[in-house]
Write a structure and sequence with these properties.
Layout lengths: L1 H26 L2 E11 L3 E10 L2 E2 L8 E5 L2 E3 L7 E2 L6 E10 L6 H18 L5 E6 L6 E6 L10 H7 L12 H18 L4 E9 L11 H8 L5 E7 L7 H4 L3 E5 L5 H17 L1 E7 L6 E11 L5 E11 L50 H18 L11
Parallel strand pairs: 7-8, 7-10, 10-11, 11-12
Antiparallel strand pairs: 1-2, 2-3, 2-13, 4-5, 4-14, 6-13, 8-9, 14-15
Helix pairs in contact: 2-7, 4-5
């Protein structure tokens, strides 16, 4: 009797789960989310937004695919000089990848892990740089290589990537997953804070073949470090591994595999998810007709889904027009200055491990110039800014 009750409860839970999942997809399959809105003199409004349909980013829209309303009054895109700003001028992303080589992997298993890492890098590299680290039973994670971002229309060659993936096994054949997650998160947060752009983002990805075995860090320590993290937390893991921290380590996306041969396809899919997360972002800017007061901005995006059907999605945000005046120039790239994020969105790492080998340091910033020199330099940069961001430099870590 009790067995029958348990089966009935399991069946009911499955039905409810399917209903909730499909119901969410049915009632809210599309989303336009204004992440941040900023204003700049004399009357320019810039909104950093993301567009998704059924969990996947909507790419490739242009300014003609958007319409606006301020306080419910439609705006003419041409009159208000609506445009999409080049994303690279204001946003950047970085992915930190942790790769499990613990628990005495065979050479065949190691080759599969390297293949999975390669496929992941190929997918991610068209949107952002990737730092690769390995972990086993040792106390510290080990830096392998940093791969730079490549142009969107280029794909790095697999063999060039594999040459850089020198996964050295240590004598410690345990698996210190928890310490690796804490250390990797500290590095990812450091990359986020190092950015000088208004809209930085980051991801911590982990490929693991099983649960923590070392026990140096508790599950609670991992939750303390990663809970409320402002970066994407994603993971690839065995489906039957019973990893206590997997729900958090893969909070934003988790893919599982039943056998080792499936790890590479899952890694490639996870890499596509990160790439897609970058290209679903837009920076919409226009010249507001408002001159004072609090304004409600409604943004509508029009596009076609994968089946070719016309779709639209809208989102709303607010901004203050106090101090606005005429003179907006659509040829001018606005200078966006944002207020600090709330404390829970800029959570710093308090448990950074010791003796970490960091990627090659970035160039030091030049000494601060006087106001007159800054103004001259800004004018020169504005003229060169479009050309600077057309393509990354040639040396990207694949040579």
């Amino acid at each position: 009797r009790h067995s029958g009750n348990r089966e009935f409860i399991r069946f009911t839970l499955k039905v409810l789960t399917l209903f909730l999942f499909n119901g969410c997809a049915l009632f809210s399959p599309r989303a336009l989310t204004p992440v941040r809105t900023a204003t700049s003199a004399p009357n320019q409004v810039t909104t950093y937004l993301q567009i998704e349909e059924r969990g996947e980013g909507v790419e490739g829209l242009d300014k003609n695919d958007f319409s606006l309303k301020e306080n419910s009054i439609p705006l003419d895109g041409a009159d208000q000089k609506l445009r999409l700003l080049p994303l690279d001028n204001y946003a950047e992303a970085h992915t930190t990848l942790l790769v499990d080589i613990g628990a005495s992997p065979t050479q065949k298993t190691l080759d599969r892990v390297i293949d999975a890492t390669t496929q992941f890098i190929v997918a991610v590299s068209q949107s952002q740089p990737i730092s690769v680290w390995t972990f086993d039973g040792s106390e510290d994670i080990r830096f392998v290589h940093q791969f730079g971002r490549v142009p969107k229309d280029q794909i790095p060659k697999d063999d060039l990537i594999r040459k850089k993936l020198n996964f050295k096994l240590s004598e410690d054949t345990s698996r210190d997953l928890n310490s690796a997650l804490i250390a990797g998160h500290a590095l990812a947060i450091a990359e986020l804070k190092r950015s000088s752009k208004p809209f930085p983002s980051g991801s911590l990805a982990v490929f693991t073949r099983g649960p923590d075995l070392a026990g140096r860090k508790t599950t609670n320590a991992v939750y303390q470090e990663l809970t409320n993290s402002p970066i994407n937390l994603i993971a690839v893991a065995p489906s039957d591994s019973q990893i206590e921290v997997l729900d958090l380590a893969g909070r934003d996306k988790t893919l599982t595999f039943d056998e080792a041969t499936k790890i590479a396809p899952q890694a490639a899919e996870l890499g596509q998810w990160i790439r897609n997360a970058w290209y679903k972002q837009y920076l919409l800017s226009y010249c507001s007709p408002a001159r004072a007061g609090q304004r409600n901005l409604e943004i509508v995006a029009h596009y076609r889904d994968r089946a070719g059907k016309p779709r639209s999605v809208k989102g709303t945000t607010e901004f203050s027009a106090n101090g606005f005046q005429a003179g907006c120039d659509e040829q001018h790239l606005p200078k966006i200055h944002l207020v600090q994020q709330p404390a829970d969105q800029t959570k710093a790492s308090s448990a950074a491990p010791k003796k970490l080998r960091a990627p090659p340091p970035k160039k030091k910033q030049a000494p601060r110039k006087e106001p007159e020199q800054e103004q001259e330099q800004e004018q020169e940069q504005e003229q060169e800014q479009e050309q600077e961001l057309v393509a990354p430099p040639s040396g990207q870590g694949y040579e």
